[in-house]
User: Which sequence fits this backbone?
């Protein structure tokens, strides 16, 4: 939506605080600069330490040697969608303090749970590149095609969700046309992903994440240095007064200051189900898991998942409280009116709050982090789709003996094709009236059907081929039917507006997510449960280069030690990591979804000033710890070491490489 068309009934519109030139500079020039730097780094790594992106294993999986620090940073970045920054403030404005909490709680548990899936995949089918290869090896080509379609639907709607929110914000802050932003945002992404592959994605993830979290930390402090707020206690008074002026329907006593919010917990259910779908049906998560060294998968995903929680919680709570508290004062951009429903659903709570407390500089910072968030996560989506096109379509169905060069060429084609397609699809949604809130709420209906059939593929021996094929298809049909029928039942018509309401999306998402469990169990029992031998996975040779015993890509030179003792030791180590992943998956879900929030919901507790102050301070401290983790952990865990190695290579000094039986790629002593 172009800013000039966004006005209330009195014709009052908020003028863009920045010029169009600023929008084009950030979206085009900054994008091209980052792409150029990443391409130069990729070339430098190739020349100095032999990371050859003309080799498929390096382009797609970074030779399976990415360490814990960079993995954790990449995991945080994978969830730093523009939706996370904009959506957490959106639900905070709509539901109060419960909104950002449920937004954060809807993300962390499945990130940590994916550590279990990731390490299980590395243990059972170490040569795979994508989750779809796992499906094909176990169930054959029909199941492969079914899951391929589901994964592509997931990627398409995920990208549309990001682009709709980001383009609306960039248009609102700069006056840049929303369609121009939609098509230009993927430009820089396509360039550096085209050249650098997954390693470029990891490196840009790191850079973008540091900048985004740094800006979030700045806003978390700036809000309380602004003269109209002054302190956390004063912010509490402002939010409390706002609840009296504009009571929130479904909240205890209409206040913003309670976890007892009916619509917020319904959103939390939508969000956690939808995000399980976004993780498990997104091949980019599997690619990053395969790219990590064996000892990095579980700690990387666990640390990343827990650290991520603070970003939507702290940023969403602070900035939505600023909007709610100052909306009736002359300093707020929309004064004397409240934000319109269109402005809220387009994701403008965060930029309007930033504009209020930090002026045009705050608006520019929001445009920058929105740009970085959408390009970083788009990069992962583009890699995911290019892997499907190159490995799961071209290599599987057109050229079984494809060379590195041919697969890379088709990966490049996939990068360009999907960048253009996602922009075109987002434009189509924009013109039919969909926005950030609509895609945020309905996303789970189309992303959830494959969750349990995919998880069963890796974790449950007994699921049959027919169950794997039919369960997600029936689940998708059930979810769509429930979604549309409940929209008609509650609102009398099936429209963009009615299908974007909370209740139809809750019913549709839950049906889409959980009905496949029932379908899979029934079909499996009726057709005779399978007893799949996990060893069958390892008979399939999927890697284009031979793997060492520690599951990384073999080097061309140097001795290889692949004896039975070492293989058994690796298998035992991965089993240990799987148990740790299972523990943290359960602990994170119970902590973020049961032990912490549900007693507060059931007790109908309304925050007092002291409790609100503690709530905000804990969120901000957690956010700053996240900044320290994403900034310094990758540097400590191999980043400085690799930088020094590159420097020594550049100045011509020889480095002594340790034999692989003395030092393994994950940094641990062998044996």
Assistant:
């Amino acid at each position: 939506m172009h800013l000039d068309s966004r006005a209330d009934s009195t014709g009052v519109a908020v003028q863009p605080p920045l010029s169009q030139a600023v929008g084009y500079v950030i979206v085009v020039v900054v994008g091209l600069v980052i792409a150029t730097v990443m391409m130069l780094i990729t070339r430098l790594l190739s020349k100095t330490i032999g990371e050859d992106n003309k080799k498929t294993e390096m382009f797609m999986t970074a030779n399976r040697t990415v360490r814990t620090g960079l993995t954790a940073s990449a995991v945080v970045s994978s969830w730093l969608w523009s939706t996370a920054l904009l959506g957490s403030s959106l639900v905070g404005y709509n539901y109060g303090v419960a909104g950002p909490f449920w937004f954060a709680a809807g993300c962390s548990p499945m990130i940590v749970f994916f550590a279990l899936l990731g390490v299980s995949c590395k243990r059972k089918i170490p040569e795979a590149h994508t989750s779809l290869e796992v499906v094909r090896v176990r169930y054959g080509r029909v199941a492969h095609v079914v899951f391929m379609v589901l994964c592509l639907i997931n990627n398409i709607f995920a990208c549309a969700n990001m682009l709709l929110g980001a383009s609306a914000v960039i248009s609102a802050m700069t006056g840049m046309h929303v369609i121009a932003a939609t098509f230009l945002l993927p430009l820089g992404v396509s360039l550096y992903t085209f050249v650098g592959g997954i390693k470029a994605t990891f490196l840009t993830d790191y850079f973008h994440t540091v900048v985004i979290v740094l800006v979030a930390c700045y806003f978390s402090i700036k809000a309380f240095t602004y003269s109209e707020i002054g302190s956390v206690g004063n912010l509490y008074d402002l939010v409390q007064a706002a609840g009296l002026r504009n009571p929130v329907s479904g909240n205890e006593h209409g206040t913003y200051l309670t976890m007892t919010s009916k619509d917020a917990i319904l959103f939390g259910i939508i969000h956690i189900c939808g995000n399980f779908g976004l993780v498990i049906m997104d091949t980019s998560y599997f690619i990053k898991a395969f790219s990590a060294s064996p000892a990095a998968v579980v700690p990387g995903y666990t640390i990343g998942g827990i650290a991520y929680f603070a970003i939507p919680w702290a940023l969403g709570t602070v900035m939505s409280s600023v909007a709610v508290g100052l909306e009736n004062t002359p300093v707020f951009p929309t004064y004397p009116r409240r934000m319109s429903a269109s402005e809220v659903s387009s994701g403008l709570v965060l930029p309007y709050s930033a504009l209020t407390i930090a002026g045009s500089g705050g608006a520019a910072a929001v445009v920058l982090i929105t740009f970085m968030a959408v390009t970083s996560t788009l990069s992962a989506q583009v890699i995911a789709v290019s892997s499907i096109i190159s490995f799961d379509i071209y290599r599987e169905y057109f050229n079984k003996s494809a060379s590195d060069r041919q697969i890379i060429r088709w990966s490049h084609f996939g990068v360009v094709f999907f960048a253009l397609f996602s922009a075109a699809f987002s434009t189509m949604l924009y013109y039919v009236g969909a926005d950030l809130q609509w895609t945020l709420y309905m996303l789970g209906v189309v992303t959830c059907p494959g969750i349990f059939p995919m998880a069963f593929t890796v974790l449950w021996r007994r699921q049959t081929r027919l169950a794997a094929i039919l369960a997600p298809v029936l689940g998708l049909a059930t979810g769509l039917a429930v979604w549309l029928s409940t929209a008609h039942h509650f609102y009398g018509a099936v429209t963009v507006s009615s299908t974007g309401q909370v209740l139809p999306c809750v019913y549709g998402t839950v049906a889409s997510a959980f009905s496949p469990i029932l379908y899979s169990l029934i079909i499996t029992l009726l057709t005779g449960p399978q007893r799949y031998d996990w060893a069958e996975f390892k008979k399939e040779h999927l890697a284009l280069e031979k793997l060492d015993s520690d599951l990384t890509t073999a080097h061309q030179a140097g001795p290889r030690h692949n004896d039975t003792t070492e293989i058994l030791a690796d298998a035992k180590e991965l089993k240990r990591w799987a148990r740790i992943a299972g523990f943290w998956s359960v602990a994170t879900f119970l902590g973020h979804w049961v032990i912490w929030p549900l007693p507060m919901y059931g007790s109908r507790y309304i925050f007092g000033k002291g409790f609100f102050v503690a709530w905000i301070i804990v969120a901000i401290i957690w956010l700053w710890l996240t900044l320290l983790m994403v900034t310094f952990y990758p540097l400590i865990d191999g980043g400085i070491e690799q930088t020094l190695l590159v420097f020594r290579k550049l100045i011509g000094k020889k480095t002594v490489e340790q034999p692989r039986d003395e030092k393994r790629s994950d940094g641990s002593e062998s044996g």
Notes: Confidence is low (pLDDT under 50) at residues 1-11, 56-64, 547-563, 655-671. Residues 402 and 543 are 12 Å apart (CA to CA). The chain has one domain: 3-433+537-601. The domain at 3-433+537-601 is CATH 1.20.1730 (Sodium/glucose cotransporter).
